[in-house]
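In line with agreed milestones, work has continued on tokenised descriptions of protein folds. One protein thus recorded appears below exactly as we store it:

>
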Amino acid sequence: MKPVVIGNAELWLGDCRDILPTLGKVDAVVTDPPFGLGTKMQGGTWGAKEGFKEMLDWDAEAPDVETLLAIIGTGQSAVLWGGNYFGLPPSRGWLVWDKSNAVPTMADVELAWTNLDRPAKRFRGLVGRVEFGHPTQKPLDLMKWTIAQVDHCHKVETIFDPYCGSGTTGVAAVQMGRKFIGIEREERYFEIACKRIEDAQRQSDLFIGSAA
């Protein structure tokens, strides 16, 4: 099994549990795994609509704590969105996404567990649309802010996302001039991630070239 290499990004198609042992240490893990809330998206909310069935299926099962602890162990720092659902060790460095346009039937905020030894921080921003096909796509500005929070503790060169979905963390990393390693097991999302990161890499190269 070999990764697809796009500039400073390395993308693997497969299950992170299989690929993780082949990887070395990274500066930071920044990821957004399934929360296991698929069956709770009911009661007349948008998540109960037939058009969002894919989200219910995708988010039906969360990774186990052992897998998440192994993932956390690969990085000097780690940020896991939805970390409040997983029974992870206590943390004082929680990140909070304050959703300024949240609908009444959905969560007003989302939490990220971190192992950062710093006070909790809040990002206030919009809930974005699903532009690239993945049902739980995070906004790009949120993921850039997330990486910046790790930078406050130590300089981050390589970012690892073992649940990279449509590649938003990778796009953020590329746009911020970082190296990226991503794993995605669904081929359709993997192909979207490769295309988005390739486009981001091309735009970064053009910017560097025009500034030279």
Remarks:
- The mean pLDDT is 86.
